[in-house]
Design goal:
The chain has about 375 residues and is an alpha+beta fold. The protein has 3 domains: about 90 residues, Acyl-CoA dehydrogenase/oxidase, N-terminal domain (Butyryl-Coa Dehydrogenase, subunit A, domain 1), CATH 1.10.540.10; about 110 residues, Beta Barrel (Butyryl-CoA Dehydrogenase, subunit A, domain 2), CATH 2.40.110; about 150 residues, Butyryl-CoA Dehydrogenase, subunit A, domain 3. Helix content is about 45%, strand content about 15%. The chain is built from 9 helices and 12 strands. A 4-stranded mixed β-sheet has the order 3-6-7-10. A hairpin with a 2-residue loop joins strand 11 and strand 12.
Length: about 375
């Protein structure tokens, strides 16, 4: 085992850290309007991303990207998460947001969907969550019923990030509700202008983003727009979501690292009752816990990334790293806020925003309780 990053990845981490420290952190409370990156800052940050070699980093070389592996992506995600200058959700600054779904298409469908996304001509959103099916996709009620050479889709999706600007929807729908997640869910690409598809309510969240509801009423989608075979949606989704859960873990590492940096600096500077906070055992123990849990989370996140990169079925490792890292980072943000006292509650510092975002990550893309439930099933099956 080698617990050191290869030199090229260590160099990449240093480059991205300088980018964050020099270009982002000094202006981090000025760059976003809600959870939208202001156009002038997007242009500046994307130009720097191209300069330092992280533009389209995870896009395969055959499509004009850098073809970096998942471990390299973790390095970048971790460093970028040290700042609140960037939106926590939605498109980042390393190129078009491309879900792995689009790489599984045939050549004709790639021409219609994948390549326009890579060229920046189209945007997509991913729609799985429903009012009664969040962490339990097997109980989804949105149905796709085969009718000749089309599927007729009915149902409601909720909390869909980016739906208002999406040109097409990457949709999960039940083709056999009796089978649930065991062969009853399929994946479709649905053009936003399809008759019977409309936006519903928009929700204002405590994180600052505004996800949408999407309503499907007898929307007819060609069979050609199904991704994979009928009933393969859940298994495909789990493969794609594994990378998403590693992304959660990597982001949590960056948040916790920043919280440790802020907390340590403030504890040395702040004097109460004649002594720096750093001399108080209560504060020292908080810092120690922050550091220990961060180091443990790094091992889990990088192990999951390495296994997925090697083509290993690492679903349990992905669940484990998401659960531990998201919980760890929220605790780090909470302790960081406590150490800073009243000033930590203000928007002058990034702590309150990291706290709000990390609290939400304990729910989104699989609640912590669901992560533990799946891990427990694995334990009972294998031990």
């Amino acid at each position: 085992m080698d617990f050191q990053l290869p030199e090229e990845l260590a160099m990449l981490a240093r480059q991205v850290r300088r980018f964050v420290d020099e270009d982002m952190i000094p202006v981090e409370r000025e760059t976003c309007d809600g959870e939208e990156l202001k156009p002038e800052w997007r242009a500046k940050f994307e130009a720097r991303a191209k300069e330092i070699g992280i533009w389209m980093m995870d896009v395969p070389e055959e499509y004009g990207g850098l073809g970096m592996g998942l471990t390299a992506s973790v390095v970048v995600w971790q460093e970028l998460a040290r700042t609140v200058a960037l939106p926590a959700r939605g498109s980042g600054i390393t190129g078009p947001h491309v879900r792995a779904i689009l790489y599984d298409l045939d050549d004709e469908m790639k021409q219609r969907y994948l390549l326009p996304v890579l060229r920046g001509e189209k945007k997509a959103c991913f729609a799985q969550t429903e009012p009664d099916a969040g962490s339990d996709p097997g109980s989804m009620r949105t149905t796709a019923v085969l009718d000749g050479d089309h599927y007729v889709i009915n149902g409601v999706k909720r909390f869909i990030t980016g739906a208002g600007k999406a040109d097409f929807i990457q949709l999960m729908a039940a083709t056999d509700r009796a089978k649930g997640s065991r062969g009853g869910i399929s994946c479709f690409l649905v053009d936003a202008g399809t008759p019977g598809v409309r936006l519903g309510a928009q929700y204002q969240t405590m994180m600052g983003d505004r996800p949408w509801e999407i309503i499907f009423e007898n929307a007819r989608v060609p069979v050609r727009n199904r991704v994979g075979g009928e009933g393969e949606g859940f298994s495909l989704g789990q493969k794609w979501l594994g990378v998403g859960r590693v992304n959660h873990g990597a982001r949590a590492l960056g948040v916790a690292q920043r919280c440790l940096e802020l907390s340590t600096a403030y504890a040395k500077q702040r004097v109460t009752f004649g002594k720096p906070l750093a001399d108080r055992q209560a504060i020292q123990f908080m810092l120690a816990d922050m550091y220990i849990n961060l180091e443990a989370a790094k091992l889990l996140v990088y192990k999951a990334a390495a296994l997925i990169e090697q083509g290993v079925d690492a679903r349990v490792e992905a669940f484990t790293c998401k659960y531990f890292a998201d919980e760890m980072a929220f605790k780090a943000a909470d302790d960081c806020m406590q150490i800073h006292g009243g000033i930590g509650l203000t928007t002058d510092l990034p702590i309150e925003k990291m706290w709000r975002q990390q609290r939400s990550y304990r729910i989104t893309e699989g609640a912590s309780e669901v992560m533990k439930m799946v891990i427990a099933r694995h334990i009972l099956r294998t031990h």
